[in-house]
Write a structure and sequence with these properties.
alpha/beta; five-stranded parallel β-sheet; 123 residues; Rossmann fold; 5 helices; 44% helix
Amino acid sequence: MPRIAIVDDSRLARAFAAAALRAKGHEVVEIEPNSLFEILRVLREAPVDLLVMDFLMPECPGETLVRACREDAALRDQPILILSAHRDDDSLMRMQQMGISGFLLKPVEASALAAKVAETLEG
């Protein structure tokens, strides 16, 4: 059973994504983005098959988290799926250059999230 971490500053968004993925049989770890250090600690201590994360988070911006994962030997190859309510093509291009696995625009439907996660895990 794939293990997926969800990082989003919105408790509601985390709960929605977690429920959608649990319904598909995934094990889900919800991480509140209080600090970059804490997120990285959780990801190192309990490795996941996929990181699903919000892009715009006040305490830990998405680009900062992606960059930190890519610079960390233990997380360098971590597949990352970005969720965002705002499409910023420049930021998206930078994220793609850093090797994100995919992007979904919020609000995302449960079926679309589950399909993109399945596609990412298979890829």
